[in-house]
């Protein structure tokens, strides 16, 4: 029998409690968001009952959500059936990075022709929030705001299929991105956001594409030190 776990049994964790219908989909969205925003670490185990307790739902929809993420290669299942956040190697990271450069670069080109002044101002505000978060050593907010900038730019392209592919890539590399701030506030990752913003203002598609590719490649270079 699949019983609801009492809220009193719920351990602390990075997930919000779920109380509405479509629990499997909502559990999927919660875990996916945690992966994309680097709230889960490479090698971390996602145990079914504790995770269900954190979300405030029964184990069945959580199991369905985890299996869906395993099928998307965002999570792995070991020989004992335990679901784990993957540890990606250098070759896989470089493949994901190359795909991100292609897709986000293409999205940046398309966004240059579509972005309004209000859109550009919103992206500029996100970049300012990112820099402010880095200065006060709020690295969780910095990671979240960096993700918001990249996806905010890509949404301006009006390419939903491309956006869906990028979400899968970010789920796979998100846990590793937490290492971007391993050097602390004294050595934050380099950003190409300002150059991309200037390209948007000038409607210079090639400039936006080049800036985003440089941001992905140079900003993520410190991650190579953590990969076998």
UniProtKB/TrEMBL annotation:
A Pfam family it matches: GntR
Every HTH gntR-type domain range: 21-87
InterPro entries associated with the record: GntR_C, TF_FadR/GntR_C, Tscrpt_reg_HTH_GntR, WH-like_DNA-bd_sf, WH_DNA-bd_sf
Gene3D superfamilies: GntR ligand-binding domain-like (1.20.120.530), Winged helix-like DNA-binding domain superfamily/Winged helix DNA-binding domain (1.10.10.10)
Keyword 4Fe-4S among UniProt keywords: no
Record keywords, A-Z: DNA-binding, Transcription, Transcription regulation
Any GO MF annotation of the entry: DNA binding
Domain of life: Bacteria
Protein name (Swiss-Prot/TrEMBL): HTH gntR-type domain-containing protein
The organism's taxonomic lineage, starting at the top: Bacteria, Pseudomonadati, Pseudomonadota, Alphaproteobacteria, Acetobacterales
